[in-house]
Structure formats: C-alpha cells, structure tokens
Write a structure and sequence with these properties.
Structural class: alpha/beta
CATH superfamily of the largest domain: Aldolase class I
Radius of gyration: 18 Å
Number of strands: 11
Number of helices: 14
Largest sheet: 8 strands, parallel
Strand content: 15-25%
Order of helices and strands: HEHEHEHEHEHEEHEHEHHEEHHHH
Shape: globular
Distance between the termini: 22 Å
Helix content: 40-55%
Low-confidence stretches: none
Length: 313
C-alpha cells in the first residue's frame, strides 16, 4: 500500500496512531510502528524528562519510524523541542497553536512536520507555514478539537480542494471501512486515536479502557468550548459541567470547576466519576480491548476487503 503518506514517513500503511495525552506512551507507539503504521508518543501529558525517557525506550523497541505529537500550548515547549532535536526524532506532529511558531525551526533540523487543523482556514495557514502535511480533525474526534463542529467527512474534501500538500483524516475513523471512506473523499491517510486507546499497550487505566468498550451512540458530547473544546464521556464530572452551564458561568467559574489534572485523574488514574474521559464518537464501535498489532492488522484487512467490494460493482 504505497502512497504519499507511506512515502513521506517510509511506512507500510498510511495509518497514524494518534498522539493522545495519558494514552500514547512508547509501548503503544513502538508496537504500531513495528506493525507497519506510524506510532506517535503523546508529549502533551509528559514532563520533559519523561518525554526523553519515552523517546529513548521507543528507539530501543523499534527500528521503524515513529514520531512525537506536541500540543504547542505546553508550558515547557522550548525544552520539549530541544529534547526532540537532541534525541534525533524525525517526525513531529504539532497541534493547539500557530504552526509558524516551530515549523521552520524543526524543518531546519531535518524533521518532517505536520500540523493538526479543524478548518480550511487553518489548513491554509499550516500549508503557508511550510508543514509537510496536515491532519484534518473533525467534530467526531475525542480530545480537543475545533469550535466549528465541522465533521471529518465534510472537512476532508473541502481541505483537499484548497491545499496541495498531503491530507490526513482524523476523527470518527477506527475501522478499515472508515479508512476507505476517508480516502475516497480525498485523504491520503488516516490518524486513529480512540481505537488505539482501547488496546493492551495503551497507557490508559484499565477502568478507562473498559468504559470505552461500554460506550454507546450518544454517550459522548463536545463541551468546554470556552476553554478548549473537548469530547467527553458523560459521567459525574460531565454532568457537573452541564449544571454549571445552566447558571451562565464566567470563564473563571468554569476553570475553577475544571481544576487541575482532570484528564490525568480520569484516563490515567481511572477515576470514572471525577475525571475527564476523553474519547471520540467512534467508541460506539469499539467492543473489545485488543493488542495494537491486531487492531492495525484488522483495519488493513477490512480496508482491503471493502476496497475489493467497491471495485466489484
């Protein structure tokens, strides 16, 4: 399966594992890379020294390409970028910030740079900043996404019309059929987060993994738009947020309720009542915790079967 994305990263399949906070450590990233995709370490939940440790361990666990996802709102961003360069990371996905800030610096160091966007406007800005490709993340995605609420399958063809660089689809994709649909609409590859969150190698707490498996249609909702939009599983904390909204709260009141480390509490420590449980709408199709290698293999197999069915018409 050779295309622009497999050639860009020197990988077997155009499948990228999302660099999710509290979920995407070196174990998950290395297994996905060894299986033919591109594994990403999620730097957003790591102190600089922890990130360095994960990069070192990932280099020992795989001789295949892997990357690091960096939310640019990270407070120690300069140190994070310094470590990435020092450790010889060749692929960086940036998000939650202006792509102009770090793209030129990283590319000068010989690093392939991608930026996550949620609209055509931001895709154009990323392309102008010189990124090698864009990840177009739709409303269906877990974690933080755009305020526009544009769905993946409308965003991809709109972006594809406007940019010349490769386009990767993200949000609501967790199966081979979903991958094929995204590529029919113009995507050159897919980034998959939620499906890999519910794998054996994911660093998420088992309580969170089991909850993902139990999620049904309508069990998640996008909220906290005033701070940074995030799709959450409906739990006690989510209900408290909705109750606060009934009072027309100020930004400060929302921040006070959110407090600190809610995502860590929920996804990493397994507090299903008081923590943030970030996951995408595709969770409704996730029914089992499996090894990441098997997940990737099944996605590829389903993609090939679905592709043959379309060509048979």
């Amino acid at each position: 399966m050779t295309n622009k994305i497999t050639q860009l990263f020197n990988i077997e399949y155009p499948i990228i594992q999302g660099g999710m906070i509290w979920v995407s450590g070196y174990k998950l990233a290395s297994v996905v890379s060894n299986a033919g995709g591109l594994g990403l370490i999620g730097a957003g939940s790591m102190y600089p020294d922890v990130l360095r440790e994960h990069i070192k361990k990932c280099k020992k666990a795989t001789n295949k390409p892997f990357g690091v996802n960096v939310p640019m709102l990270y407070p120690d961003i300069e140190k994070i970028m310094e470590i990435i360069v020092e450790e010889g990371v060749k692929i960086v996905f940036t998000s939650a910030g202006n792509p102009k800030t770090w793209t030129a610096y990283l590319k000068e160091k010989g690093i392939t740079v991608l930026h996550v966007v949620s609209s055509v406007k931001f895709a154009l800005k990323a392309a102008a900043a010189g990124v090698d490709a864009v990840v177009c993340e739709g409303f269906e995605a877990g974690g933080h996404n755009g305020r526009e609420e544009t769905t993946t399958f409308t965003l991809i063809p709109m972006v594809k019309e406007q940019v010349k660089i490769p386009v990767i689809a993200a949000g609501g994709i967790g199966t081979g059929r979903g991958m094929l649909a995204a590529m029919v609409l113009g995507a050159d590859g897919v980034q998959i987060g939620s499906r890999f969150a519910a794998t054996e190698e994911s660093s998420a707490h088992i309580n969170f993994k089991n909850t993902i498996v139990d999620v049904k249609d309508g069990d998640t909702q996008l909220t906290l738009k005033e701070l940074a939009p995030v799709r959450l599983i409906k739990n006690k904390f989510f209900n408290e947020v909705q109750e606060l909204y009934q009072k027309n709260p100020s930004i400060e009141e929302i921040k006070e309720l959110l407090g600190r480390a809610r995502a860590k509490k929920g996804m990493f420590e397994g507090d299903l009542e008081n923590g943030e449980l970030e996951i995408g709408q595709i969770a409704g199709l996730i029914n089992e915790i499996k090894p990441a290698k098997i997940v990737l293999k099944e996605i590829v197999e389903e993609f090939n079967v679905a592709k043959q069915l379309i060509y048979s018409f």
